[in-house]
Queue: 4 jobs
Job 1
Amino acid sequence: MKRLLLAMAMLLSVCAAQAADSDMAERSALNAILKRGELRVGLDAGYMPFEMRDKKGDIIGFDIDLARLMARYMGVKLTIVNTQWDGIIPALLTDKFDVLMGGMTITPERNLKVNFCDPYVLIGQTILLRPGLKDTIKSYRDLNDPRYTISSKLGTTGDIAARRYLPKAKLKQYESESEGAMEVRSGRVDGFVYDLPFNAVYVAQNPDKVIHLKEPFTQEALGWAVRKGDPDMLNWLNNFLAQSKRDGTYDALYKKWFEGTAWLKNLK
């Protein structure tokens, strides 16, 4: 009798495990993508060179090229879901798209809500200055003074860094990085705190309008985000990233968007 009960218990345990595995597979975004025949990628167009609009209004950039490659490997079509930054994680969690590819910094706070794949880019925060401060401000520390007003994009790590490292300066927050940078260019604020890639590109576009303090004063890892409880999707993204680095595709795209400037002529 004991052996019979033990065998039944083991059988029930195996059945429960199989049911759990089946349920997890059913809920996986990866299986939903393949069944739907469509990969939905969420981002906020405006973060150069990750995603931005060209002269025709199409969204282009480093993340877009990587997303196209993902969709090609999956054998599905790609749909870009342009989403305002402050609502982009809730949009992922409510299944508005399958993966968040908006150049998001991996933070412990965000990781409580979503899971991140392995980092795909390492960056840091830098500062755009109005030209009149070229001989006065040599470091981000020099801006930590009530005499100065700085700008940031609301809800970003640049916003967090501005408040953490420059608490004495006056802070103006904007919905987009373009607005924050434009405030510096127009002379209405003294500096704009944001990610190195965007600031470097902005200076290349406006060489006589702003000064770039290009030495990052933070270090940040960027990652793609997926909903929690989906190891299949996370595993696929990590393997995709590793493979694209091994075969040289990632390096080619990185050089195109981060080291090349040919794409600048296609912007608005």
Job 2
Amino acid sequence: MAFKGVFFDLGGTLFSYSGRLGSAGIAHVVRTLRLDAAPEAIGAAWGVAAAEVGERYGKDNYFLHKDLFQDTLRLFLDGFGLQASPQLAEEFHQLQLEAVVTNLPIRADCHSTLAGLRAKGIYVSIVSNIDDDYLDPLVTNHGLDKWLDDWTSSEEAQSCKPHAGIYHHALSKSGLKLQEVLFVGDSLHHDVAGAAAIGMPSARIVEPGVKTPLTHGLEVTAEPDYEIAELTDLLDLVLGVHD
């Protein structure tokens, strides 16, 4: 069946994880609470907290990423016998949000690929595990709304990949059938596993030297139907099938 639509993951797919987002939020908390510890100890403690909270949240079909990150902050501070006030936790969130929206690097071939697909009548959408306050500014600040038919956050769908709900929610917006859509992402745990579970074809983008963020509590349950090195590879893959 010809592909009539392409659903894209956001982070690691349209945007690369190769950039440095910084740690302004954590640094602000550390300064405010006067946490006396070496940077290496702080980094290690944050990694432990992130793994524990990530495994717990990873088992849920839906959650707000703001809650995940703030729970990670709370567990991190517990290890040092400290607590963040609601105001400080919100300041942490806003600084982290600003860092991602400002610094997450868009792939050089993102616009040209989306434009090429749209020019041939392919339905183009983003389906991302992210909260609205992250997704909306990333879309509009980078002018992606020029090429997209729509975009769906896990917050809007009340479902996080690999849960089936977010895929079906996006499909209902597009009016397309499962086999008419190619899902493109970087995560075997989220993007590929979720698509395969409902029978949607998938393509995985693999960037040499860049690792997909660790996913705790989830297993790899499927392999992609296709593998690509660059977004522009989709023009041959999708348009070749389409034509």
Job 3
Amino acid sequence: MELIAVVMLVLLAGGWVVLNRIGGAKYRSVMKLHMEGLRLKRLAPPMLYVVERLKLMSRFPLFFFKIQRSIQKLNGQRYSAELTLLYAGEMMAYGWLLLMLGCLLTLAMKDAAGLAIGGAMGVLVPAAMIKDMHGKVVKRDQDILTELPELLNKIVLLVGAGETVQKAISHCVEQKKQQVHHPLYRELIKMKDDLEGGYSFQQSFENFSKRCAVQEVSIFTTTVLLNFRRGGSDFVLALTDLSRVLWEKRKAITRTRGEQASSKLIFPMVVIFMIVIVLVGTPAFMMMNL
């Protein structure tokens, strides 16, 4: 088993060096792209070469489509294909490092368990990365849904007070321009920039809906575009009905988050309970032995 570990270690290290020389320069432009959470970009070029050489993205289109869709929601549609490739290289780099670590553990412990641990971690860590990205996408969509009803209420009040739809939305965005990290207002700020750059209101609003990629935002966009020309009570009534539905969804999301937060406290409470039992029970057992 030690011989197998040595051979695998040499192949993994030598393979990285060879592949880096062959295809490393090809991916320099991709390496310059920024994506939050990537830590092994310097080790990624050989992995990117393997992904493209083996045509993994065309062999597993559904898997990579889901990753690219999540990346588009979190980082925008620009360079989404390149970022998907970079993220795949990051996952493979983690698997490669952990497999090397398993070989080193096997040599240190002189047991095949080290190689098994390294191989298992090499599969679990990339899976955890995908799960973490999915969690970020879900949180982003929920943040948009929880903030959208408040935005609708402000628009309804401003339109009812005599403002036009465009001015009402611009006024709401101007009030929240400091919240650039909030997904909803980040996309609204981009929509306002599009309007100032010469795009029509309809085109800017449709692009906003595509970037958000949330069903409720699409309904909001459709409602606004169908009714903003008519204005008056019809427009206010349509947004009020939509706002009522969105408030119910916001309540459901808040309730779900509360349940998730309480469920996360169960394990620490069990651990604390066990510690208390040990602290209280140990002296009693010691006295019984005496």
Job 4
Amino acid sequence: MAKKGAKQRDDDTIAVNRRARFDYEVLDTVEAGLALRGTEVKSLRAGKVSLQHAFATIKEGEAWLLQADIPEYQYGNIHNHWPTRERKLLLHRAEIERLAEFSREAGRTLVPLKMYWKDGKAKVLVGLARGKAQHDKRRDLAEKDAKRQVERTLAQRAKGKQ
């Protein structure tokens, strides 16, 4: 049984980019399909993917996921895939145009937040984000520490009353 308040990972979740919410202020999200090749699906099923350095971009009217590391499948043959190849994001034309418009503004970027399975297909949750300044990150850490301290104090008080 998980601890109270602990975040549980869904069974369908492949990977979460935890660093993205720390480095960026996520303004909106878009769900995109992912065009995969051969052994990439098997690597994803094994849960081997890293979104830490990944980002999305719009090139020539198409959305692409760059620097997402899906390692080669261990039992694959010579037709294995390149781990950090560019992968096409499957979106409607209107969504691509909206993402392109958003990313044109300075300081805004498209960041993959989560990769998961939905109806047997790999999906990526792309966040429309703005980079945080260093002082914003410090403030977030201070708020998180204060909240943790309050919870700890309340737990100790509740324990003392029993």
